[in-house]
Amino acid sequence: MRGILPGKSNLDARAVRLTTPDGDPLLTVDKQRGRDYTEILGVKDEVVGSFVTERVGRRYVIYDGDGTLLGAVDVDVPRTNFAVTDNDGTKVAHVRKRWAGLATHLLTTADKYAVEIYDPVPQPLRTMAVMTAIVMDMNLHESKEIT
Known about the structure:
The chain has about 150 residues and is α+β, with helices and mostly antiparallel strands. It has two helices and nine strands. The protein has helices spanning about 100-105, 125-140, and strands spanning about 15-20, 25-30, 35-40, 45-55, 60-65, 70-75, 80-85, 90-100, 110-115. Strand 7 (about 80-85) and strand 8 (about 90-100) form a beta hairpin. The radius of gyration is 15 Å and the shape is globular.
């Protein structure tokens, strides 16, 4: 069905606002057009960090709001496992795209991710590790939408 009815491209610009259950803003994920750059913005639109493509679909580097390198995200071949490492190459988190079932996969745009953080992970790398699930979904899996 996706081949017949192409949906949104994962090259399109998109933004996702994360809020508390009461609707108070927390963070915004601002994906620029293409796959090169995604920013994480705080409540007052200050840059918390960014993901920059080093090798499309295979490796992304993570920066803090001042542009200091924090680490990287390495992606496996099926694009379902994401290893988040610090500047020393130490794995600080693992993000996994989980199988939601055939019907969910074929008939909805819903995806499930699990994030495991290996303590201690300092801020802002800890926040960026959590944001990896959303950023990788927007960069690598968003095109399955049919709208």
